[in-house]
Amino acid sequence: MDPVTIITTVVTLAGAVCTSYEHVSRLVAVVQNAPKELEAIRSRAATINSIVTNLKQALEESAIHKVIEKDKLALNNVTALDGALKDVERTLDEVVDKLTKQSRPTTEGEHYKLRWRYYFSTSDWAQLQTRLNTHIQDLGSSMQSLNTFHVLRVLGDRDNDPARTLRTYAKSILEGRESKLVDERKSSPLASSNDDPPSPLPLDERRLLAKKKLHLQRELLQSARGGEDLDVSLLLDEGAETEWTEANEGMTALHLAAKYGHIRVAELLLEAGADIEAKSDTFGNDFIVRTQKDRTPLIWAAAGRDCPRMQERMCRFLLDKGANVNARNVSGRTPLQEAAMSVPYPNTNPRATMEMLIKCGAHVNAYDMEGWTALTECALYGRKELVELLLANGAQVDAKPGKGDPAIDSNPDLRWSHCEQDNPSPLRHIFYGITPLLVAGNEELICLLLDKGADTQSKDGKGKTIAELASDANHGMVLDKLAKMGKSLRIES
């Protein structure tokens, strides 16, 4: 090879190494944000970056240029660097690709947190780590060779036999490197024989499997909550269980999908065998238990607070899949009652939801353990159109269903009926005897209930009738209505 060609080749290779250095540095910067589980990958990537940096600096030195220009073996060694660096780039590209697919950025946006996929591809990471080890050895040997060529060139010049000294030593380096790589491959666990008898899993491996399982199930709950249907599908394919719940929440993946209005996720879970009548095992203070424990997916959807724009659609989907329209939570509340209680929350659509539930057979006179019906709830919030809807579909105006009402058999015992006479429930004073008329939120609604035959002699927990309450609130329209109905106004001071 003529001197001009040699010099051109050296300059080209130096430029290629600089380009690889920039690419490798960018990739290593990403890998350095990998989680602690990939510490080995991070450290090897940093080592490779350091070697490539040294190679770049070496090829920029004029002394090394002179060595390469004078010796063909040195030139061949540098030429081989081109392929080695491309292999390094490919491996690091794979590392970064897997890292971005199997982890997600943390809230700071700089570091990564592993997703469930990592635990099912640890063998792939082990192979990448082995490849990085090989690259470190190859690049390290190349760097060592460059330094050796330079040193031996100087020594050879002094001994007047540069070629023999240089080639003999360089050949021993290259042969030693190849034999070492062969020995490492033979000792690799990936190359072990399949004829060895299987042995019981060690405790550490069993723990790792348990952690994988826990991570898998938590990912399913998180994906169901967030509506990530693709992730849910993959997790189910990996063996995630549909009925698994977190101890601090007591909700299955289907509960979460229904609560947050993710129809596609709910569909995938039901196809995988999820129980459409599963009851949430929520715990906490008394209020949380009374309102959320034993909710079915349909009850969560009907509540509508967390999926206001999907309230009616999610309920319809679950009913089409066979959900019980008259399911009850621990306090005896039905989906219809929960829909009525969603009135105060913005963007909910209680009317459409209630209409659909009633058409599907919801008991309009179902009451909970506090004696409240859907009509009582709607009256409390002053929603005249909902009160009219319920009354038109058979709701009893005083929230006291008769013996022939379909809800009578499923209605629970009232909470205070279990208390002894001398130890009444603290709720009794607030709730006992409450009728829609006594809690109605405005005069127009009260007059409507009176027109429908509401009992004017019913009393609230403090013993007051509607006439007394209207007088206290200065509801002249109600008082006039009562007077026209011929009811005597006995107002106690």
TrEMBL record:
Gene3D superfamilies, sorted: Ankyrin repeat-containing domain (1.25.40.20)
The entry's keywords: ANK repeat, Repeat
Pfam family membership, one: Ank_2
ANK repeat extents: 249-281, 293-330, 331-369, 370-402
Keyword Repeat: yes
Chain segments annotated as transmembrane: none
PROSITE patterns, per database record: ANK_REP_REGION (PS50297), ANK_REPEAT (PS50088)
Region (Disordered): 180-203
PANTHER family per UniProt: ANKYRIN REPEAT AND SOCS BOX PROTEIN 2, MYOTROPHIN
Protein name: Fungal N-terminal domain-containing protein
